[in-house]
Amino acid sequence: MKNFRQVAKKVIEALKGVDYVVEARTAEALGIKDGVPLARIKVDCLITIGGDGTILRTLQGNDSPVMGVNAGVLGFLTEIQADEVKQSVKKLLAEEYHIDERLKLKTTMNGRRLEDATNEAVIHTAHIAKMRDFSISIDGTPATEVRADGIIIATPTGSTSYAMSVGSSIIDPRVEALVIAPIAPFRLAARPLVVAAKSKIQVTLKNPRECTMVIDGQCEFKIRGDENLMFTASEKTAKFVSFKDDFYRTLEEKLISSAPFAAHRH
């Protein structure tokens, strides 16, 4: 990321006189000694520098609130621009912000809990141009069957990401709901479903075959197709440090008015 070092120097300069730690891999990239592994960091706020992928990786490895500084391309989840670092850090230290809590997705496979997702979990065929037959149950009741390339289970935050690119509605992050969206379904009538966040969503393959499950684009799991896959709202939340309350303005500026990026991937 070509802007990373430049933006990181701005952040470090803005934090002068304040006690802080630097994440281990970031410290190595900047030539700083004594970096701390992400999972061991205990702070009031984590400042991330990068794009949305950086934020998603951070939220998988640490539960602290995140302030995202954009050094990527689109940065839908990163509220702060590089030229706003000094002012934003000043507001952060003065506690002139609020915490925006977002629903996270809990995923279990054969009873084993996997990483939580801020955006989505995706089950995709492991072979190009080979569809799979998926059965979806909600709270133990069969809801739908679909033949498709895959299935996306997304949070409201994730409804503006991969799910949006396959036709999902955009959901206000204040709404407690989950989206079930088929990827390239065989039937045109197959549409995304919006269900209550507390619902227990079970996805099975009618004819078990190899698939891949990816959580937030960060963690990948090979599955045989006969696993018990369950999805529901996590008891944990993704916490964002925010100085604004303008989800719809961000939506307009970064997605609706930016046609080339309308099918972006966080």
Descriptive report:
- Helices cover 19% and strands 34% of the residues.
- It is an alpha+beta fold and 266 residues long.
- The protein has 2 domains: 4-97 and 243-261, Probable inorganic polyphosphate/atp-NAD kinase, domain 1 (Rossmann fold, 3-Layer(aba) Sandwich); 104-235, Probable inorganic polyphosphate/atp-NAD kinase, domain 2 (Tumour Suppressor Smad4, Sandwich).
- The strands form 3 sheets. Strands 4-3-14-11-6-7 form a 6-stranded antiparallel beta sheet, with no helix packed on it. A 6-stranded antiparallel beta sheet has the order 10-9-8-5-12-13, with no helix packed on it. It has a two-stranded parallel sheet with strand order 1-2.
- Helix 3 links the parallel strand 1 (46-50) and strand 2.
What's this, in brief?
This protein has 266 residues and is of the alpha+beta class.
Q: What share of residues is helical?
A: 10-25%
Task: Write down the overall geometry.
Answer: elongated
What is the string of helix and strand elements?
Answer: HHEHEHEEEEEEHEEEEEEH
Structural domain tally: 2
CATH architecture of the largest domain: Sandwich
| N-to-C CA distance | 15 Å
* CATH class category of the largest domain: Mainly Beta
Stretches where pLDDT is under 50 for at least 5 consecutive residues are: 259-266
